[in-house]
Design goal:
Blueprint (H helix, E strand, L loop, with lengths): L4 E4 L3 H10 L4 E3 L5 H6 L7 E4 L9 E4 L2 E5 L4 H6 L1 H6 L1 H7 L5 H6 L2 H7 L6 H7 L3 E4 L3 E3 H4 L14 E7 L3 E8 L6 E10 L2 E7 L6 E2 L1 H9 L24 H20 L2
Parallel strand pairs: 1-3, 2-3
Antiparallel strand pairs: 4-5, 5-8, 6-7, 6-8, 9-10, 10-11, 11-12
Bound molecules: flavin-adenine dinucleotide.
């Protein structure tokens, strides 16, 4: 680990001002991604600006067809929240599949979406539900927020304040975890929303994406059988020592059917 200075922010405003004055500083939330990155000497920030305890980044609220989850909310809180379980049970289920108890007790939803790991779970829910990312500067639709591997629309110094999820009529998430890391080899979030069916895929490609053919098929017939014969384009998927493109394409189809089956019970 390279040496750095530690700063505990007292407010979002203070954190933002500090980042503006120190371009090589980095935010520290749960540290579940950042600390291993620093330990491996893959980053060399001048300062870590700790936003972990900020009241402005805490809390879950539900009302008017929306679920608001503050950026500093830890995965365990999402997984066990009565409000989340009532409004979008699939989101609580997804949060409980992240990592292990240590990771879920430290990692935050804001840190996860800001990091945009291509195998992370939350991006599938954020895109699948058509959520909005509220930052210290603006509101960003999920479609515009995720921009490929570890890349988002966030500008330097911009902080994720909360996620706003429209409450879906029905939703489910199915994940095939990598047996060693627990990250998604493929994870598919299916939601029946006020504007139609949405299907978002994580883990399989360089970034989270919507599977439009599956959305159209499920829009006509919301049943696992509607996905028979459909496949994502394997050429656009990841290939590595863990799985070929074709294997990942098959996993996506299987996870999509499982997610729909969770909803329909068929
Ligand atoms: C062993 C292990 C297993 C894991 N398994 C999974 C898994 O199965 N699924 C999964 O999805 N994830 C998994 N993770 C990642 C975990 O979910 C992390 O918590 C998450 O990716 C980062 O959140 P964090 O709060 O720890 O952020 P940090 O590590 O503190 O920060 C990550 C990055 O985001 C930035 N950042 C943090 N908060 C904000 C904010 N509010 N606004 C803007 N930028 C911000 C930081 O500057 C940093 O660049 C795993 C991690 C570990 C260590």
């Amino acid at each position: 680990m390279y040496p750095f200075s530690y700063v505990k922010a007292k407010s979002l405003k203070e954190a933002g001002e500090f980042l503006a004055a120190h371009p090589d500083a980095k935010l520290l939330a749960g540290g579940m991604t950042l600390i291993p990155t620093l330990k491996a000497r893959l980053a060399q920030p001048s300062h870590l600006v700790d936003i972990g305890g900020l009241a402005e980044l805490a809390g879950i609220k539900e009302g008017a067809g929306k679920l608001l989850i503050a950026g500093g909310t830890r995965h365990h809180e999402v997984a066990t929240s009565d409000a989340v379980k009532k409004a979008i049970p699939a989101l609580a289920y997804l949060a409980n599949l992240i990592g292990d108890p240590q990771v879920r007790n430290r990692g935050t939803i804001g840190g996860s979406v800001a990091n945009n790991d291509p195998a992370a779970d939350y991006p599938a829910a954020v895109l699948g539900l058509g959520a909005t990312v509220v930052t210290t500067r603006r509101e960003i639709a999920a479609e515009d927020f995720f921009q490929g591997m570890f890349t988002t629309a966030l500008a330097p110094g911009e902080i994720v304040v909360r996620l706003v999820f429209p409450v879906a009529k029905r939703a489910a998430y199915a994940k095939f975890p990598h047996p060693a890391s627990g990250y998604a080899m493929a994870g598919v979030f299916v939601a029946e929303t006020a504007t139609g069916v949405r299907v978002a895929v994580t883990g399989a490609a360089p970034g989270v994406f919507r599977w439009k053919e599956a959305e159209a098929a499920l829009g006509r017939n919301f049943n696992p059988a509607a996905l028979a014969g459909l496949a994502v384009n394997a050429d656009e998927l990841n290939e590595d020592i863990h799985a070929t493109r074709e294997y990942r394409a098959n996993l996506v189809a299987v996870m999509a059917r499982r997610a729909v089956a969770q909803i329909t019970g068929k």
